[in-house]
Design brief:
This protein has 2 helices and 4 strands. The chain is α+β, with helices and mostly antiparallel strands. A two-stranded antiparallel sheet has the order 1-2. The protein has a two-stranded antiparallel ribbon with strand order 3-4. It is elongated. The two termini are about 35 Å apart. InterPro entries: PDDEXK-like_dom_sf (IPR011604), Restrct_endonuc-II-like (IPR011335).
Length: about 90
C-alpha cells in the first residue's frame, strides 16, 4: 500500500486502488491535494496525495463506469416494480 520515497517520506503506491480513488476525487472536486491518514495501533502517518495531471484520461472511464452502475440500478428497480405491481414512487 505504501512505500518510502527517495527522500524518506511515506507515499501511497500509484498502483494501489486508494491512489486511483483519490485521483478521481481530486479531479471531480477540482481539489489539488488530499491528506490520507494511515492509522495502526503503533503509529499514525499523514500522507499528502497531490493531483497527478497524467491521470486525467481515466476520467472518461470513471464516467462510463458510473453511468453503467446507475443504469443497472435503475433497471433493477424498475424490474422490481414491474414484478411486484407496486406503482408507488421510489428513490434511486
Amino acid at each position: 500500500m505504501t512505500e518510502l520515497s527517495s527522500d524518506g517520506r511515506m507515499t501511497l503506491k500509484e498502483t494501489h486502488d486508494y491512489w486511483h480513488q483519490i485521483q478521481g476525487q481530486l479531479f471531480l472536486t477540482g481539489t489539488q491535494c488530499c491528506d490520507l491518514v494511515l492509522w495502526t495501533p503503533k503509529d499514525l502517518q499523514i500522507v499528502r496525495i497531490v493531483k497527478d495531471m497524467s491521470w486525467s484520461p481515466n476520467i472518461s472511464l470513471m464516467k462510463q463506469a458510473h453511468l453503467l452502475m446507475v443504469v443497472t440500478t435503475v433497471r433493477k428497480k424498475v424490474g422490481m416494480v414491474e414484478k411486484t405491481g407496486i406503482t408507488k414512487k421510489f428513490s434511486i
